[in-house]
């Protein structure tokens, strides 16, 4: 068998907007506007540089709901660049870009194969020998039956067989479940490589026979999608042994860092610490621009300073200015304050005074999240608000309790130190 | 604590005023106006807490009727012990003295303990107040009371809860208001709606992309077809225009072809035949002319050569003549120098001889050379000079020092005599060491301390013995008391039991059994009561005995400790006596001296010290003067020696100089400077002699040179046979020789030039003849080429050939034009064919039609292209549109902000809710104890018109709750009700205070005046309740109030107060 190589990618989400990014303008706006495209360009350049034999795209190239013509055209342009260099491309569609989703009627370049809604097999020859058989299918519509995608099975004489599919393996709370497959089902199909898509985080389920992996998305889109994002560059040797290596292609990196400030005493110390944190983030980004969230934590005397109006905003602005001037830039998306006053809450909770009473009420509310929902119903039941926001789930509200507790303490103890 | 008696020495209208027998409960002071109720209230405050400080500007109640300003009160403590607190006006708000129960004295601190740490402020506002203070809520609003009434300090620090809640509400309102427009969330919602609208529009546009592409495709086909038709018409129009342009050429071609056909055919003729013929003929003519000129020139040169003659001997002597010419300048210069040197030489010789004589009669040239004028000789002179000068300076200096020292010695001797006289006038002390005297004084001081300590010890012993005697007396008293306490007997019980049994039996016997039982039972009951009483009595007696025993033992223990103390003191006294003996004898005193002896000895030692202080400095001065005289004498001897040494050195250096002069052969009278001058002159004469010798040598060389040159010149002139060879003037002769030789050279150069020219002319003539022969041959060849035998025929044939050729050229030009228009080969054939078949008129008509068609078609294509361009532009816009992405990105940003704001709103709202809930709980369940107590009093006084008092949490305000549950702020209460509330709060506070500290007496001055009879009655009941725990002093001038009080407590202690 001739040796060959390919790139396995998925979830490009071209032109999808970044989620949760406030007040991004100027340099940052242009960075994020083109980030998904730049990541795709990096992917194409990687394929050309590695002279791979073909490219596999396992769904969610773009979000049909976004109606981004630009995404589809840029995707077609990228594939053309690859096929012009003799790299064939195999694409299946996923839940975000199903076949019945809106798409412009584009002419795909010669050498691009888009899988239809019925399972198809395409043979790929390497230097004249038919070595690889790729089986794949696309989502006909965004909502599919759980059993969709059955029928992947070794067939034909090609020594190396690949399954290209957009689906869930097991269950993942971070992603909606689509066409769920168990590991046993995947293994029993007797294929050599499962090129999966859907889950946005790189994960290898099985490094052996078959090789089963999600490459993750090519560009993180929100603060929970931190760290390197990219694709798998796969080398298959003469015995069909797989050597897959993860290569980051993301254009902008997300980072969320917790900064302990317990022992700091002055604002100067704080700025110095945060600048050091930014330097560390910059170092981790391996030359890419980064969007970072800094969470300040710890019991600190600075807590009351941080609660003063405009202090956090000014701090954010200062770090943003410095962050954009440096190379590569670091854009501070947000500074979250999760600090607390240096007060022993447990002992205060036991005291018979007013603060103790309040703290006990707060503590009791942990057992009755429904009460919390009732307290904030004025906002979430508002007709106009309902269009955009849902009432937070009970577990989300419980996450607020510490912040509420901290606020109560600050309000009641604030002037004690003054 | 309570008051038992009051004594005023002098305070306001009171003078030597006493109140005693105060009840522990309620005491009513009844008196008319100006009877001193308020003064008494002020007196009690003053005694307990001091006179008001000056800056408060309060009434100090100065004693109007005499007596010392102040007085005292007697207080009874918890255990029934009495303290007397006395205070009189004085510094620091009047000093207080506290007489303790045991007769000892205490200070302010003891008083503070008695008043249970109540501050003056608290006492004034809560415990001792008048109507005026009751009416003002401010008097309750002092720090200590405030803390007890309000919730401040109960975990909220200095924070105002109302302020916190208000702040939170403001923050919440800034984030969201239902139906609001400007709060953050409301603004965000509006923006989001706008963005969604924008997104909807962009999406609709993008969904039309495929239709747009189809339309573009169709439009492109239309444009192509229209453009094809236009191209065809344009091509035909171009063809017609070409045919029109080619028409003239075509007509010319036809005409020229016909002309050429009519001319005779001369196909070959030499190119430019006639021109070439004329050129050959012209060249031949020129060559003939030049030949004639050359022959003439050759003849002329031959004639010139014959006219020139040569003298060969002159040419061979050329080299010698050149040498003479070159040496002529040197010869002339040497002759001139000779003339100049000779007189100068003579002058110098004479001058030198004269200068030598100036040095001295025996100075010759030889001696000039022998004299040593070297640098070392000069240095030696300078050394001698320096040594002489140094020796003279040293001599002068030594003389001066000797004179100075002699004068110093005389002064020192005078000072010594004066000091000796001074010391003779002061007596010499016995002890000359000050340290010995100091030690003696210190010894006396310590001895005095020891004697003093001995006295103290003896006094302490006496005091101890007195106290011991007292305790022994007390002990005897206790023994007697103990013996006095007997034991209650039990035998009467037994007697009563027996008697009742007997009486019962008797009654049963005489009357009936029932009566017997009754009697017996009564008797038994009496005996039980008697038994109970006796046992109680016995228990009391036992307790009393135990107490006395305990005291007895305590006294015994004290006595034991006293005897130990006495032994210790005796021992110390004995040790002290022994310690004194040693130091006293050392100081020359009696073994046990008294203090007066020690004082006398110390005064003597002090006098000795003073005498020593006086004698010491004079003695020291005398010694110093003596030493100085000795030092000066020694110095004078040294100076004398130095002077002698200097004299000797001067003589030696003068002798050395004379020796040197003799050796150099110079006069002994010369000073070193004179010797140096002689040396300079000898050097100058040596230089003059040298230059004279050089001049003589130069003269000899010049004379030799002149002679040699003259001989040489004359010898050459003779060789060449010049007639004046022996003339005297050699210079003239040389010039003649040179002139002759140059002439001969010139003749020779002319001959050589003519010879060269002759040969050149000959060569040119031969070349010219060869060219003439070649031209003749070329002419014959040209005629043959042109098919002619002679010139005229040649010229005629040339004319015919030219005419035919030019017609052909014109034809070619036209054909080329046609080719440019219609192409070559087949195309050209078709082009000419078309021309042959058409006419200019037909062509013009077709052209006009075509131009119109093209114009119309161009317009159509432009219009179609414009439409296409618009569509394609639209397509490009859609393909590159980033607006939708930007809008989605913006939407996400706004959503993030909305989520943040909603989260913040939720946090603030929930926080506010918790604070409100906690406040409600606090106000309801955690009421301050003072408020709770006060509530009871207030309910009673207002006959349950008001139920509760509320202190809203975190606020410094009070509200009362009526029977119907409504809350009222204090400022809307009637004056009477407000006073009742304030009185209740005070009572509440007093009760609460009593639980934590010792109860204090309460003093109230005329506080019921604004109470209606029903509430006054209720107030009196509460006052009596209060009097159960606290002593109450109530001042009033109203008899009806007295009656009311007596109604409820007929036994109440009423004290009549009369002025003064």
What would you note in describing this structure?
- The complex is a heterodimer of chains A (418) and B (1060).
- Chain A is of the alpha/beta class.
- Chain A has 3 domains: 245 residues, 4-Layer Sandwich (Purple Acid Phosphatase, chain A, domain 2); 89 residues, no CATH class; 76 residues, no CATH class.
- Helix content of chain A is 33%, strand content 23%.
- Chain A contains 13 helices and 15 strands.
- In chain A, helix 3 links the parallel strand 2 and strand 3.
- The longest helix of chain A is centred in the C-terminal third of the chain and has 20 residues.
- The radius of gyration of chain A is 26 Å and the shape is elongated.
- The termini of chain A are far apart.
- The model of chain A has no long low-confidence stretch (mean pLDDT 89).
- Chain B is α/β, with parallel strands linked by helices and 1060 residues long.
- In chain B, 73% of the residues lie in helices and 7% in strands.
- In chain B, a hairpin with a 7-residue loop joins strand 5 and strand 6.
- The two termini of chain B are 27 Å apart.
- The longest helix of chain B has 74 residues.
- Chain B contains 27 helices and 14 strands.
- Among the domains of chain B are: 101 residues; 94 residues; 163 residues.
- The radius of gyration of chain B is 82 Å and the shape is flat.
Considering the chains and any ligands shown, give keywords for the structure:
heterodimer, A: about 425 residues, alpha/beta, Purple Acid Phosphatase, chain A, domain 2, 3 domains, six-stranded mixed beta sheet, 15 strands, elongated, B: about 1050 residues, six-stranded antiparallel beta sheet, five-stranded parallel beta sheet, 27 helices, 14 strands, about 75% helix, about 5% strand
């Amino acid at each position: 068998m001739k040796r060959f190589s390919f790139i396995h990618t998925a979830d490009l989400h071209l032109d999808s907007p970044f989620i949760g990014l406030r007040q991004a303008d100027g340099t940052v706006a242009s960075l994020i506007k083109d980030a998904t495209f730049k990541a795709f360009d990096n992917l194409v350049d990687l394929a050309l540089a590695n002279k791979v034999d073909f490219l596999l795209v396992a769904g969610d190239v773009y979000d049909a709901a976004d109606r981004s013509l630009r995404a589809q055209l840029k995707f077609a342009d990228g594939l053309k660049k690859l096929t012009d260099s003799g790299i064939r491309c195999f694409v299946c569609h996923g839940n975000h870009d199903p076949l019945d989703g809106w798409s412009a009627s584009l002419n795909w370049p010669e050498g691009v194969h888009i899988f239809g809604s019925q399972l198809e097999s395409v043979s790929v020859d390497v230097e004249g020998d038919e070595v690889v058989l790729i089986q794949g299918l696309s989502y006909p519509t965004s909502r599919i039956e759980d059993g969709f995608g059955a029928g992947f099975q070794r067939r034909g004489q090609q020594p190396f067989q690949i399954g290209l599919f957009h689906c869930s393996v097991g269950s993942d709370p971070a992603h909606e479940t689509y066409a769920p497959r168990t590991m046993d089902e995947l293994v029993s199909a007797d294929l050599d490589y499962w090129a999966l898509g859907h889950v946005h985080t790189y994960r290898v389920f099985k490094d052996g026979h078959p090789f089963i992996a999600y490459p993750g998305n090519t560009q993180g889109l929100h603060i929970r999608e931190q760290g390197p994002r990219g694709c798998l560059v796969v080398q298959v040797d003469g015995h069909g042994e797989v050597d897959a290596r993860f290569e980051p292609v993301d254009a902008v990196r997300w980072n969320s860092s917790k900064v302990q400030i317990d022992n700091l005493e002055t604002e100067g110390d704080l700025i110095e610490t945060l600048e050091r944190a930014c330097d560390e983030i910059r170092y981790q980004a391996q030359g890419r621009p980064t969007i970072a969230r800094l969470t300040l934590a710890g019991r600190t005397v600075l807590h009351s300073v941080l609660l003063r109006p405009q202090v956090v905003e000014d701090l954010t602005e200062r770090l943003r200015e410095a962050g954009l001037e440096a190379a590569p830039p670091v854009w501070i998306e947000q500074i979250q304050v999760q600090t607390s006053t240096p007060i022993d809450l447990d002992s205060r909770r036991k005291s018979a005074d007013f603060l103790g009473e309040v703290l006990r009420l707060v503590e009791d509310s942990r057992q009755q999240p429904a009460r919390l929902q009732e307290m904030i119903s004025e906002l979430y039941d508002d007709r106009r608000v309902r269009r955009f926001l849902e009432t937070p789930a009970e577990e989300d509200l419980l996450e607020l309790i510490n912040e509420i507790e901290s606020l109560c303490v600050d309000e009641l103890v604030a002037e004690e130190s003054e | 604590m309570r008051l038992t008696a009051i004594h005023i020495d002098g305070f306001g209208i009171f003078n030597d005023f006493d109140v005693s027998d105060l009840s522990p409960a309620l005491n009513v002071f009844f008196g008319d106006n100006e009877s001193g109720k308020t003064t008494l209230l002020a007196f009690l405050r003053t005694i307990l807490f001091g006179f008001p400080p000056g800056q408060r500007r309060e009434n100090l109640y100065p004693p109007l009727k005499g007596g010392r300003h102040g007085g005292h009160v007697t207080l009874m403590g918890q255990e029934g012990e009495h303290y007397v607190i006395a205070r009189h006006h004085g510094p620091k708000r009047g000093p207080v003295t506290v007489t303790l129960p045991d007769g000892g004295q205490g200070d302010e601190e003891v008083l503070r303990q008695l008043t249970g740490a109540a501050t003056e402020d608290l006492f004034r506002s809560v415990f001792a107040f008048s109507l005026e203070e009751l009416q003002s809520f401010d008097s309750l609003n002092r720090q200590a009371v405030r803390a007890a009434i309000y919730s401040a300090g109960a975990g909220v620090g200095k924070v105002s809860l109302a302020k916190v809640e208000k702040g939170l509400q403001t923050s919440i309102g800034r984030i969201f208001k239902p139906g609001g427009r400007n709060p953050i969330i409301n603004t965000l919602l509006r923006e989001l709606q706008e963005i969604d609208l924008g997104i909807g529009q962009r999406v609709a546009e993008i969904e039309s992309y495929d239709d747009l592409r189809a339309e573009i495709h169709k439009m492109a086909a239309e444009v192509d077809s229209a453009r094809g038709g236009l191209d065809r018409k344009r091509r035909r129009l171009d063809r017609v225009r070409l045919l029109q342009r080619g028409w003239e050429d075509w007509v010319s071609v036809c005409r020229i072809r016909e002309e050429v056909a009519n001319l005779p055919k001369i196909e070959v003729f030499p190119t430019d035949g006639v021109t070439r013929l004329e050129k050959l003929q012209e060249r031949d003519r020129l060559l003939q002319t030049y030949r004639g000129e050359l022959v003439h020139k050759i003849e002329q040169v031959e004639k010139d050569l014959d006219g020139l003659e040569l003298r060969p001997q002159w040419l061979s002597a050329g080299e010698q003549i050149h040498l003479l010419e070159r040496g002529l300048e040197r010869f002339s210069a040497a002759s001139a120098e000779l003339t100049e040197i000779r007189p100068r030489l003579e002058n110098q010789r004479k001058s030198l001889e004269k200068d030598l004589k100036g040095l001295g009669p025996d100075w010759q040239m030889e001696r000039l050379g022998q004299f040593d004028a070297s640098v070392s000789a000069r240095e030696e002179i300078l050394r001698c000079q320096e040594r002489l000068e140094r020796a003279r300076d040293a001599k002068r200096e030594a003389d001066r020092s000797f004179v100075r020292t002699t004068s110093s010695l005389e002064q020192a001797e005078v000072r010594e005599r004066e000091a000796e006289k001074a010391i003779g006038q002061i007596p010499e002390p016995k002890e000359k060491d000050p340290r010995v005297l100091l030690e003696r004084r210190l010894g006396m001081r310590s001895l005095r301390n020891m004697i003093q300590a001995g006295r103290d010890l003896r006094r302490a012993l006496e005091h101890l013995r007195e106290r011991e005697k007292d305790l022994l007396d007390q002990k005897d008293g206790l023994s007697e008391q103990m013996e006095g306490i007997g034991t209650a007997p039990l035998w009467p019980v037994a007697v009563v039991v027996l008697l009742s049994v007997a009486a019962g039996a008797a009654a049963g016997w005489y009357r009936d059994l029932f009566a017997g039982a009754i009697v017996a039972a009564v008797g038994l009951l009496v005996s039980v009561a008697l038994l109970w009483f006796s046992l109680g009595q016995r228990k009391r007696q036992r307790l009393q005995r135990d107490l006395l025993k305990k005291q007895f033992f305590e006294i015994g223990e004290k006595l034991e400790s006293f005897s130990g103390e006495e032994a210790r003191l005796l021992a110390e006294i004995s040790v002290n006596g022994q310690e004194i003996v040693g130091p006293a004898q050392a100081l020359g005193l009696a073994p046990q001296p008294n203090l007066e002896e020690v004082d006398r000895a110390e005064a003597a030692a002090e006098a000795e010290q003073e005498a020593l202080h006086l004698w010491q400095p004079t003695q020291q001065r005398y010694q110093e003067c003596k030493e100085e005289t000795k030092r000066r004498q020694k110095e004078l001897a040294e100076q004398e020696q130095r002077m002698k040494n200097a004299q000797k050195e001067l003589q030696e250096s003068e002798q050395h100089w004379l020796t040197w002069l003799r050796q150099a052969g110079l006069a002994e009278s010369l000073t070193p400077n004179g010797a140096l001058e002689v040396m300079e002159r000898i050097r100058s004469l040596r230089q003059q002699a040298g230059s004279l010798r050089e001049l003589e040598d130069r003269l000899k060389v010049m004379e030799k040179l002149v002679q040699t040159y003259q001989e040489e010149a004359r010898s050459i002139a003779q060789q060449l046979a010049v007639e004046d060879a022996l003339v005297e003037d050699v210079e003239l002769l040389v010039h003649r020789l040179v002139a002759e030789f140059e002439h001969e050279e010139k003749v020779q150069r002319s001959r050589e030039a003519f010879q060269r020219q002759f040969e050149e002319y000959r060569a040119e003539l031969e070349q010219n003849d060869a060219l003439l022969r070649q031209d003749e041959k070329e002419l014959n060849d040209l005629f043959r080429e042109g098919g002619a035998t002679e010139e005229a025929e040649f010229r005629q044939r040339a004319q015919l050939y030219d005419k035919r050729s030019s017609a052909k050229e014109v034809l070619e030009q036209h054909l080329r034009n046609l080719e440019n228009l219609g192409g070559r080969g087949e195309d050209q054939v078709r082009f000419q064919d078309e021309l042959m078949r058409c006419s200019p008129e037909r062509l013009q008509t077709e052209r006009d039609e075509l131009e119109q068609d093209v114009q119309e078609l161009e317009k159509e294509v432009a219009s179609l292209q414009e439409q296409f361009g618009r569509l394609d532009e639209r397509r490009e816009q859609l393909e590159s549109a980033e607006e939708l992405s930007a809008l989605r990105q913006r939407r996400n940003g706004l959503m993030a902000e909305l989520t943040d704001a909603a989260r913040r709103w939720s946090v603030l709202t929930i926080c506010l809710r918790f604070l409100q809930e906690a406040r409600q709980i606090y106000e309801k369940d955690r009421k301050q104890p003072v408020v709770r107590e006060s509530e009871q009093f207030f309910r009673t006084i207002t006959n349950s018109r008001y139920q509760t008092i509320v202190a809203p949490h975190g606020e410094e305000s009070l509200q009362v709750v009526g029977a119907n549950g409504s809350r009222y702020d204090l400022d809307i209460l009637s004056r009477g009700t407000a006073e009742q509330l304030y009185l209740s709060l005070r009572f509440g506070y007093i009760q609460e205070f009593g639980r934590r500290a010792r109860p204090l007496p309460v003093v109230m001055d005329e506080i019921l005046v604004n109470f209606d009879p029903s509430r006054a009655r209720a107030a009196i009941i509460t006052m009596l309740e209060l009097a159960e725990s606290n002593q109450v002093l109530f001042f009033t001038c109203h008899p009806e109030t007295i009656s009311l009080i007596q109604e409820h407590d007929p036994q109440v202690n009423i004290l009549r107060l009369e002025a003064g």
